[in-house]
UniProtKB/TrEMBL annotation:
Protein name as it appears in the record: HAD family hydrolase
Keywords: Hydrolase, Magnesium, Metal-binding
Membrane spanning residue stretches: none
Any one Gene Ontology molecular-function term assigned to this protein's record: phosphatase activity
Pfam families from the UniProt entry: Hydrolase
Domain of life per record: Bacteria
Amino acid sequence: MMKTVLLLDLDNTIYPVSSIGDKLFKTLFATIEKSGEFEGNFEAIKAEIQRTPFQKVAYDFSFTKKLLNECMNIHIHLTYDDPMFYFDDYSVIRNLPHKKYLVTSGFTKLQNSKIKQLGIFNDFEEIHIIDLQTSVLTKKDIFQKIIEGNNFQKNEVLVIGDDINSEIKAGSELDLKSVLYDRKGKFLKTESIPSIATFHEIHRFI
Ligand SMILES: [Mg+2]
């Protein structure tokens, strides 16, 4: 009997943030660059914003309170309204009959607009957006909530995402099977964190 349920990340797991980044963050990047109220390299900040929750980037690069507030005001109202495209191989996941749950961190309005533009709303049983502005919950908390709320056994859950410090870490802390979606082969292959370069390999885990 097929039982595995999939807990999926959104950004850089279902679609590449780089495909929308320059356009989406145009005003934000300009505001940061113009202010100069940060420490470190501006290009590094741009790269980090596209793969890490914004609040963490602001902290890591010592944004001033003033700059942080300006960025927050931009972010809170930000949406992406142009066409978006998921990774080709996401269609493999999409076509699986397994139950899927989307767990993503970010600004609520923005994450909702991406889900809409990607046309993936109906792929999921539940969609959880962890908005760091309004929530102190972590992916680990949400995973636990999904498991308890649906009476899943831990061994029937598979976590899939691109971030070893976020969903993959949460998955291992909860003793869930986790697989790193590592399209570019950035990470060293290890026994403890299995990885795949394409969703065509997902069948090994479900
Ligand atoms: Mg991600």
